[in-house]
């Protein structure tokens, strides 16, 4: 399931490390709607069956250590769990305003989005949010397509979500073929992280590709990374 939540900012300036604020908003939405589900996902470390992306349609650019993003913020949310989607959807409706660093988010609307069904073993995707792939054995080192260890790190992340959400115990492998990729350095939780955006093809079992589409690719998916859109299948 996919839906978008639109907010209006009181002021157009937000910090560059803004994703943590939206993580807090998601936690609050779950807490308002279903506290037990919030505790399940956030009281202990566990893989979370969702991803999201942030879109600023009026973004103007950097202002020192901050971003001038204009008034409008859209959160695009995707999950494989109808239960989670329902509670989050209802939770967002209950939050009419939310403190956001030194700013305030004011709720505007929530709308359902198109949700594609993947039937092909090869699908072309584009990134809706940057993708992070960590090196196996070094979770704070992030790799780009073509670098040594990238495919191993990517497939490890895919295997982890397939075990957690599809109950598949065997290691899962997909093929990654870049089409148009760009490196993007982002600032997240007080650290620079090397990610990538762009267009690429994934080849694998359609059920695995569907899961990647639903919950995101790579690591830190529930922190606003790895959300994909279907280009062609």
Question: What would you note in describing this structure?
Answer:
- The protein starts with a strand and ends with a strand.
- Helix content is about 25%, strand content about 40%.
- It folds into 2 domains: about 1-110, Alpha-Beta Plaits (2-Layer Sandwich); about 120-230, Alpha-Beta Plaits (2-Layer Sandwich), CATH 3.30.70.
- A hairpin with a 2-residue loop joins strand 4 and strand 5 (about 65-70).
- The strands form 4 sheets. The chain has a 5-stranded antiparallel β-sheet.
- It is built from 5 helices and 14 strands.
- The longest helix is centred in the C-terminal third of the chain and has 17 residues, at about 150-165.
- With about 230 residues, the chain is an alpha+beta fold.
- The mean pLDDT is about 95.
- It has helices at about 20-35, 35-40, 80-95, 150-165, 205-215, and strands at about 1-10, 15, 50-55, 60-65, 65-70, 70-80, 95-100, 105-110, 120-125, 135, 140, 175-185, 190-205, 230.
- Helix 1 crosses helix 3 and helix 4 (about 150-165) crosses helix 5.
Number of helices: 5
- The number of distinct structural domains comes to 2
Label the CATH architecture of the largest domain. Answer: 2-Layer Sandwich
Order of helices and strands: EEHHEEEEHEEEEEHEEHE
Q: Structural class, from helix and strand content?
A: alpha+beta
The CATH topology of the largest domain is what? Alpha-Beta Plaits
Shape: globular
> Using DSSP, what is the number of strands?
14
> Which CATH class of the largest domain applies here?
Alpha Beta
Summarize the main sheet.
Answer: 5 strands, antiparallel
CA radius of gyration is 17 Å
Q: Reading side by side through the largest sheet, how are the strands ordered?
A: 3-6-1-8-7
**What's the end-to-end separation, in Å?**
19 Å
Helix content: 25-40%
């Amino acid at each position: 399931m996919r839906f978008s939540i639109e907010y209006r900012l009181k002021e157009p300036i937000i910090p560059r490390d803004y994703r943590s604020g939206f993580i807090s908003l998601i936690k609050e939405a779950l807490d308002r709607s279903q506290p037990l589900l919030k505790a399940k996902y956030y009281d202990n470390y566990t893989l979370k069956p969702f991803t999201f992306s942030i879109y600023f349609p009026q973004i103007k650019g950097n202002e020192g250590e901050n971003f001038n993003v204009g008034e409008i913020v859209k959160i695009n949310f995707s999950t494989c769990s109808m239960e989670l989607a329902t509670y989050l959807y209802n939770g967002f409706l209950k939050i009419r305003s939310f403190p956001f660093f030194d700013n305030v988010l004011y709720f505007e609307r929530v709308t359902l989005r198109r949700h594609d069904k993947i039937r092909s073993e090869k699908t072309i995707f584009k990134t809706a949010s940057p993708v992070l792939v960590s090196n196996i054995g070094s979770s704070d080192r992030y790799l780009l397509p073509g670098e040594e260890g990238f495919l191993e790190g990517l497939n490890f992340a895919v295997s982890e979500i397939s075990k957690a959400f599809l109950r598949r115990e065997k290691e899962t492998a997909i093929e990654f073929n870049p089409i148009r990729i760009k490196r993007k350095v982002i600032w997240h939780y007080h650290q620079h992280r090397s990610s990538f955006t762009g267009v690429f093809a994934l080849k694998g079992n359609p059920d695995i590709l569907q899961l990647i589409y639903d919950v995101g690719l790579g690591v830190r998916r529930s922190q606003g990374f790895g959300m994909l859109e279907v280009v062609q299948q």
